[in-house]
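@channel sequence for tomorrow's demo:
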Amino acid sequence: MSYMIKVSILVPMYNVEKFLEECLDSLVNQTLKEIEIICINDGSKDNTLKIAKEYAKKDKRVVIIDKANSGYGDSMNRGLKKAKGEYVGIVESDDFIDLDAFEKLYDIAKKENVEVVKSNFYEYFGATKTDEGVSKLFPTREIGKVIDPAKNRLIFYQPPCIWAAIYKRGFLEENNINFLPTPGASYQDTGFNFKVWASAHRVYFVKRAFLHYRQDNSNSSVKDSNKIHCVQEEYEEIERYLKEKGLIDEFGSTMFTAKTGGYIWNLHRLKFKAALEFADTVEKEYKRAEKMGWLEPKKLDRIGKHNVRYMAIKHPKTYVVLRPLHTAKTKAYSVARKVKHSILGKNNAKTKN
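structure tokens (generated this afternoon):
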């Protein structure tokens, strides 16, 4: 490629023959032509590699890394090492993206001189071939201007969604931002995401959604409850990174707040026995955070204070036992809100008439 590569797009692949063509079609037809598409095959056992090679024959911008199965983190690190673009994007191989996505994101990145441009995304259901809403990751007040995450930390508590953004490659390299290469692990976007926000000072949020995030892939690793302790490993890596960078005092409480959000989510979704076992981890982490001084009120933001008061963090085993009551209470509250809004809507209609 004789031109400057503006965006390197990493596509990690493992047994995705069912979705890969739709993904790659959305990439080779991008309106931004100065791209490279790095497909990292993680030892697929189906026709994934064969499909990728067919695209590589037709388009020289498609680069293939083929390796034995070693996990998502190692795949992404190899892709980052191979990348030559000014910016790096990520598209999971079971998702697809709007054709003007990387042109729009790159233009913003250059105009605003930022390290990261982050957008919203669609929740896509392949069975019906429809998008059911846009996931809104940031408040309206933070959209359309340069943000320093250290000064407004809400983004630390949002789902990672690392594939809804582009990152300046030099920024990633200078800050040694990569993935935890744990074989067979999950949640490896967690560590990468936190490292980005802890290191970046110029970030731009875009209201528009570009990427169509598939919700009905049964093979998605996030659906595997057997890998729950992987999230703990990710936060151990985050803590190591913060200490290495001299940022642990600044971001220790933020890290624990983000961690508790993930822990509460998992205590909700795990089956009773698994949730009770995981509660041991949560309890130990809470006591350790107290010793580290991360729970001091002056160090916690509004979300941190809320999470620390949450019964699921202070008394996780009791919470798991009482979980059915909390679920019933939440459902009752939801129904009450719907009834209230319905009554208010009818009253408003009568007033207008």
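heads up for whoever presents: The chain has two domains: 7-224, 247-321.
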